[in-house]
C-alpha cells in the first residue's frame, strides 16, 4: 500500500498571521503534523511525505523538524482563493512523476488542526479500505449546533427559520437527526478521486471518521490561545 501524505502550508494567512509556523506549546504549529507524519511513515514504510508551500521560511522550519522538501508550490496555486484539491493534485503529480509510481491513497493532514494521533489515522484508513466504493473520507466531530434544532437562515421572504426541520417536527435537541462538524484535521483520498475530477472534499461517495476526543481547527486568534492553553496546561483528553 503506497501512501502520499500531503502537508499543505502556504505562506499567507489573514486570520492568524504566520500561523503555520507560529509557536504553540514548545514548537511551531507545523511541527505537530510533521511529527505524526513521520510516526506514520515509520510504521508504513511505503509512505512519502510531501510539503506543499510557497514559503521558503516554512520550508526551512519544516526541514529543522525532519521534513525536507524539493517541491515548491507554484504561484498560481498559492492564492487564498485557490481550492486545496488543486494544490494536492499538483504535488501528487510531482511525486508520482519523480518516483515513477502511483499512490493508492493520499492522506492530507491540515497544519491548522493538529489534534489527532496515529490511532485516529489508522482507524480512519481501515474504514475507507473496507468500503471499495468510497472515494474519500474526512474527519469530523460532534457539532456545537444542529441545523434541525438551533441553526437558522434567512428565507426568500426576508424572515428567518430553521435551516432544516421547517415543519417543526423536531422539538428537542435529543430527537434531532445526528449531524457532524468538519474539523479539518485530515482527509483520506483514494487515488481515483483525482482522476474523477472532484473539486471539493464532500462527494457523492464520501465517508467520515468521527474523532473521539477534542479536535478543532484554528480560524481565529482566540482559537490559537485556547489550543495553546490546552497543550501547555495538559488539558487534552488524549495523547497528542
Per-chain topology:
Elements lengths: L2 E6 L14 E2 L2 E2 H15 L3 E6 L3 H9 L19 H16 L5 E5 L8 H13 L5 E6 L10 E3 L5 E3 L18 E10 L1 H4 L10 E5 L10 H12 L8
Parallel strand pairs: 1-4, 1-5, 6-10
Antiparallel strand pairs: 2-3, 5-9, 6-9, 7-8
Report on this model:
There is one protein chain. By secondary structure, the chain is of the alpha/beta class. It folds into two domains: 192 residues, Spore Coat Polysaccharide Biosynthesis Protein SpsA, Chain A (Alpha-Beta Complex); 36 residues, no CATH class. Helix content is 29%, strand content 20%. It has six helices and ten strands, in the order βββαβααβαββββαβα. Strands 4-1-5-9-6-10 form a six-stranded mixed beta sheet, sandwiched between helices. A two-stranded antiparallel ribbon has the order 2-3. Strand 2 and strand 3 form a beta hairpin. The longest helix has 16 residues. It is globular and about 55 Å long. The two termini are 25 Å apart. The mean pLDDT is 93.
Uncertain spans, ≥5 residues at pLDDT below 50? none
Q: What separation lies between the terminal Cα atoms?
A: 25 Å
- Assembly category: single chain
Helix content: 25-40%
Number of domains: 2
Strand elements, count:
10
User: Helix- and strand-based class?
Assistant: alpha/beta
So what's the overall shape? Answer: globular
Mean pLDDT: 93
Reported for the largest beta sheet, the result is: 6 strands, mixed
Strand order of the largest sheet: 4-1-5-9-6-10
N-to-C SSE string, H for helix and E for strand: EEEHEHHEHEEEEHEH
> CATH superfamily of the largest domain, called what?
Spore Coat Polysaccharide Biosynthesis Protein SpsA, Chain A
Q: Class of the largest domain in CATH?
A: Alpha Beta
Amino acid at each position: 500500500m503506497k501512501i502520499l501524505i500531503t502537508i499543505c502550508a502556504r505562506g499567507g494567512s489573514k486570520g492568524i498571521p504566520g500561523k503555520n509556523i507560529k509557536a504553540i506549546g514548545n514548537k511551531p504549529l507545523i511541527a505537530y503534523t510533521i511529527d505524526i507524519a513521520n510516526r506514520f511513515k515509520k510504521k508504513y514504510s511505503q509512505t512519502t511525505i510531501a510539503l506543499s508551500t510557497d514559503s521558503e521560511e516554512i520550508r526551512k522550519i519544516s526541514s529543522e523538524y525532519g521534513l525536507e522538501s524539493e517541491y515548491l508550490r507554484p504561484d498560481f496555486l498559492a492564492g487564498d482563493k485557490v481550492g486545496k484539491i488543486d494544490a494536492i493534485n499538483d504535488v501528487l503529480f510531482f511525486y508520482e512523476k519523480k518516483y515513477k509510481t502511483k499512490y493508492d491513497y493520499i492522506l492530507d493532514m491540515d497544519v491548522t488542526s493538529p489534534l489527532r494521533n496515529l490511532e485516529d489515522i489508522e482507524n480512519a484508513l481501515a474504514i475507507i479500505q473496507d468500503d471499495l466504493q468510497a472515494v474519500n473520507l474526512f474527519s469530523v466531530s460532534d457539532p456545537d449546533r444542529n441545523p434541525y434544532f438551533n441553526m437558522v437562515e434567512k428565507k426568500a421572504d426576508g424572515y428567518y427559520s430553521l435551516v432544516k426541520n421547517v415543519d417543526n417536527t423536531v422539538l428537542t435537541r435529543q430527537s434531532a437527526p445526528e449531524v457532524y462538524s468538519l474539523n479539518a484535521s485530515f482527509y483520506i483520498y483514494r487515488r481515483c478521486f483525482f482522476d474523477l475530477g472532484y473539486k471539493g472534499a464532500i462527494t457523492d461517495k464520501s465517508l467520515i471518521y468521527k474523532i473521539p476526543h477534542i479536535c478543532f481547527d484554528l480560524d481565529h486568534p482566540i482559537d490559537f490561545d485556547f489550543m495553546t492553553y490546552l497543550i501547555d496546561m495538559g488539558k487534552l483528553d488524549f495523547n497528542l
